[in-house]
Amino acid sequence: QPFSTVLGVFPRFVRELSREQGKEVRLDIYGGEIEIDRRILERMKDPLTHIIRNCIDHGIELPAQRVEKGKPPGGSITIGISQRDGGNVELLISDDGAGIDIAKLKAATLKAGLLSPEKTASLSGRDALMLACQTGISTSPEVTDISGRGLGLAIVKDITEKMNGTLDIESEPGRGTTFRITLPLTLARFRGIVVREGEAMFVLPTGSVERVARVATADVRTVGNRETISLDDAALSLARLGGVLALPRKNESETPRTSHAVIVLGAAGRRIAFAVDEILNEQEVLVKPLPKQLGNVRNISGATILSSGHVVPILNVPDLIDAAVDAGAAAAVVPAAPARTAAPRKKSLLVAEDSITSRTLLKNILENAGYAVETAVDGIDAFTKLRGGVFDLLVSDVDMPRMNGFGLTAKVRADAKYASLPVILVTALDSREDREHGIDVGASAYIVKSSFDQSNLLETIRRLI
């Protein structure tokens, strides 16, 4: 049915609500002729009502306030519907009001105790705006019939994602806010990618899949304690689907993998790559909704029955991305080497660090973990010792005299004899440019000291050697 079948009630709703609040608001609607599954339309009535109420109550200012800001006394709300590639419909609801006050949003989050002060302070941009969708978060100073309970946008996000849709928020202080909702055309059928992880199969909506690829194990890097890969000249976080879904770990084969099947998912402006055991095919699937008692199961939005008779879960992409980010890309993609029955020589590590305190600390940590460790005071000393000995891995600081860690890594990579030697940079330099520089010169992993965890370092070393 056309969107206009549910939009007809909103002009009156806007007039009455704005009159109650002493505001002047005009509503413009475009694209009402776009057709979509009737069941989606029915479920979108409440979310649209919550968003428009939010625009009027929180967004549009009183006429006198708007005039002081150089705006016309009357505000405007626009609802625009358009059809997108991949069988999706995009719904934009925009206002020209005050925008979202991120400082107030963070203060409300802290007051509700939903996040730690450190985590809340670190959020910015889109991640900070999405705090508005947390249950119990409201910037309204009082609870009224219109707002203040912190439920409206939480309901919008929940209903949208249950229909395999996505919600994104954009806001500019003083200029207004836009809510961007992407929905499938139909709930009954859609095209999906079937993947296998261990003994289980899952379906991912094709509309959320940006691409599939095969990535060599040697091309998996660790940046800021996260697995990353480079695709289309862009760095992407990498997580194992089984780790994010908390599936039981299977026994790894004796032969380490040389490559991984990867599926890149995107939702609301975020992208992340998931490693899976196998990408099977793309096909049209018939969606079976979950029963009510399973309605709140995270990461699952429904199920389908394949032609083979297997009942396969349909994965909720926004949930998956949230879970992968929360878990820090959950599980390492590259498994640790299997235990060996023979006891070969100790793995030999070279540590380059100009600070005697840090050098001694790293040496003790690594020796206690069973490695033979030799140290160097700077890059030149390290390269000299590298040429005079046999080492399985190099751990280096970046900021050192004579030759820094970037220069040392580049020199190591330029020598064919050491081209495959794993290099881990452990440094206080945590800017994006420094991380990218470290990977560009050939570092296998880049660990920032501010988030240093010895178990993380040891796990990275075990993975690399």
- Portion in helices: 25-40%
Strand residues, percent: 25-35%
Mean pLDDT over all positions: 82
Tell me the total number of β-strands. 21
Low-confidence stretches: 329-343
Structural class, from helix and strand content?
Answer: alpha/beta
Strand order in the largest sheet: 8-12-13-11-10-9-21-20-19-17-18
Q: Tell me the Rg in angstroms.
A: 27 Å
Counted by DSSP, the helix tally is 15
**N-to-C terminal Cα separation, in Å?**
59 Å
The description of the largest β-sheet is:
11 strands, mixed
Shape: globular
Question: What would a concise description of this structure say?
Answer:
By secondary structure, the chain is an alpha/beta fold. It contains 15 helices and 21 strands. The radius of gyration is 27 Å and the shape is globular.
What does this entry look like structurally?
The chain is 31% helix and 30% strand. It has helices at residues 4-7, 10-20, 38-59, 63-68, 102-112, 117-122, 125-129, 152-162, 241-244, 317-326, 356-368, 379-388, 405-414, 432-440, 454-464; strands at residues 25-30, 75-84, 88-95, 166-172, 176-184, 189-197, 200-205, 209-216, 221-223, 226-231, 234-240, 259-267, 270-276, 278-286, 300-305, 311-315, 348-352, 372-376, 393-396, 423-427, 445-448. The strands form four sheets. The protein has an eleven-stranded mixed β-sheet, sandwiched between helices. Helix 2 (10-20) packs parallel to helix 3 (38-59), helix 3 packs antiparallel against helix 8 (152-162) and helix 12 runs parallel beside helix 13. It is globular, with a radius of gyration of 27 Å. The relative contact order is 0.08. Residues 329-343 have low confidence and may be disordered.
